[in-house]
Amino acid sequence: MWPAFRHRISHRLAMHVPLAPRRLRNDHPVVSFTFDDVPRDAVTNGAAALEARGAKGTFYVSGGTVGIRTEHSALADVDDLVALHVRGHELACHTYSHRQVVDMDGAAMAADIERNRRFFQSLRSSIELENFAYPFGVGSLAGKRRLGRRFRSCRSIMPGINAGTVDLQFLKSTPLIDRQIDAAAIDRLLDETLAIGGWLIFYTHDVADAPSIYGCSRRLLDHALEAASRRRVPIRNVAEGLDACGL
After folding, report:
1. CA-to-CA distance for 231 and 227, rounded, in angstroms?
2. Helix (H), strand (E), coil (C) string for 34-62
């Protein structure tokens, strides 16, 4: 009972207490497409859909889960990840163990992050993990502070558009998941992003004709990409989005 309560309080503090407030300095709106855990079809379908629009995505990976099969999907293997890197997509950190940040103390987190870094360096020395996403979307105030010393940004799953002053260690993102959003809602979000000059970050997992409860259909992804292109909202990966926003 007490650990669960402590986790909830720590996560809420992470959500609402900014440790790295920064003001966006972009001169145009931006949209990013990100993929957590990286099922294989996020590579074969997701990355391909982005490339067809001349765009790149950000793929948050836990080295300890590479190549395994979960109850929902088969995850990308090392060849898939190297191919993403070679094709210009961004690989980013999701811890090595895929443990919640709130469950790790400083030493455990540092060791886990370093293990993920070494894993990707062993694949290609040119792979640098600059950005981070919280496993399960669960953060902690202490974790934010430690992660902020290691990564340019940390992405949450707190929905919303990043605009004005943002918390770099808890960037907002919106689910691109069939069970949670539809085409009309995507259109409304992009219209709002355009109106306020914000940075909209989508996240999903698998990309398939029959997606898991955490994924999106190819049709929904194609709609989001087409809707952004129609509004002339540039599609950037997270590293490029940070650059575009002067962060």
Report:
1. 6
2. EEECCEHHHHHHHHHHHHHCCCCCEEEEC
* Residue type present at position 143: G
What digits encode the pLDDT tens for the residues 52-67?
999 999 999 999 999 9
- How much is the pLDDT for 6? 67
Indicate the domain borders of the chain.
2-244
Cite the beta strand spans of the chain per DSSP E: 21-23, 30-36, 58-61, 90-93, 131-133, 153-155, 165-167, 174-175, 199-204
Rounded to whole angstroms, the Cα distance separating 178 from 69 reads: 22
Q: Is 89 helix (H, G, I), strand (E, B) or coil?
A: coil
- Which numeric CATH code is attached to 2-244? 3.20.20.370
pLDDT tens column, 77-101:
999 999 999 999 999 999 999 999 9
- Exposed / middle / buried, residue 5 (Cβ in 10 Å: 0-12, 13-18, 19+): exposed
* Residue 176: strand, helix, or coil: coil
Crossing angle of helices 183-196 and 218-230, rounded to 10°: 30
**How do beta strands 199-204 and 174-175 pair?**
parallel
| CA–CA dist 97, 95 (Å, integer) | 6
